[in-house]
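Our working data are protein records whose layout never changes between entries. An example says more than a description, so a record of this kind follows.
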Amino acid sequence: MNKQQNLAKSYQSTETYSGVAYADPHSLITRMFDGALRKIAQAKGAIERNLIADKGELIGDAINIIGSLDACLDHEKGAEISKNLGDLYEYMIFTLASANINNDKRKLDEVSRLILEIKSAWVQIAPQHPQKVG
């Protein structure tokens, strides 16, 4: 990796983690969805450019993010919804692993669509922040 790539990676790390300490849990989950979508899009580009090692790393990052989303589920409070999301996350991880093995951009697109659907529902249930009075 050359110096420019190192700087770009450092910037991305800083950009990714800035504000995380002050973010509410709902925002953190939204950021995780965004991060997974970004990694999948980058992996798709890596497949198109035949950058196999990069593709594997990016898909691995997306799998880790989805695994973290799964670990955030509260199976006691969430009951059936939590179980269904857990099953869906497991399916996405399996599908991403298959996409990695087969360089299958369609499977990457499928997982992106699933994440977008979940993210859309998640954004709809954003907690209401009380407005300041006075």
